[in-house]
Amino acid sequence: MSAELQMSAAADEADFPYRAISRAAIASVVFTVFALPGLVPTFEPMLFLAVIAIVAALVAMRAVKRYPDEYSGRAIALFSLIASLAILVGGVSMHTYIYLTEVPDGYERVPFFELQQPSDAKIDAPTELAYDIDGKPVFIKGYIHPSSGGGVLRQFILVPDLGTCCFGGQPKSTDMIEVTLLGGKTVKAGLTRRKLAGKFQLNSAPQVVTDFDNNVFYRLRVDQIK
């Protein structure tokens, strides 16, 4: 009887051998999930995780094909491959469309970094571009600094990124733009990246703003905000 049970167990193992799920397949699913926030404009850099998910899925499918008796997870990897490709292609297409259509007519796109001095600069002074666009209508993106206050705002300090906004201590002078919303417009404070269109101005003399240690060089009188 015992011999029959052992033979039956051996036969079951031969018919249904244990196969481990490919770690690459699991990793591909994880990276696919974490790539999803990349569809939101603020977090578009996370779309790069979809590329990692695609590579992991291909590695998993290759491993299952080469070692079918040792690994499983081909279906998982295939699902992850399709999903991550959809996220990557859809996300890139969407963000490209937004980039090409987001600037209102009559405004010039100005990347915030072109208004900033390098981190190793000896002096913090307005950049050459800042002088060039003084008095011109511009389109710029940034974040509301928490020290500007909470709730609904008509005036606030705009900074270039979340690092400067929340984790960088006191921003430098060229990391700040003093924003005034025109026409009774308001905006709710928060960590959402804002898109602003308005008239850029250089202060004739550096201005001091409450709760900020450094002077402010730049101002923006905003007609449109999203």
UniProtKB/TrEMBL annotation:
InterPro entries: DUF3299
Gene3D superfamilies assigned to the protein according to its UniProt record, in alphabetical order: Protein of unknown function (DUF3299)
Listed transmembrane segments: 20-40, 46-64, 76-100
Metal-binding recorded as keyword: no
Record key words, sorted: Membrane, Transmembrane, Transmembrane helix
Keyword Transmembrane: yes
Domain of life: Bacteria
Protein's recorded name: DUF3299 domain-containing protein
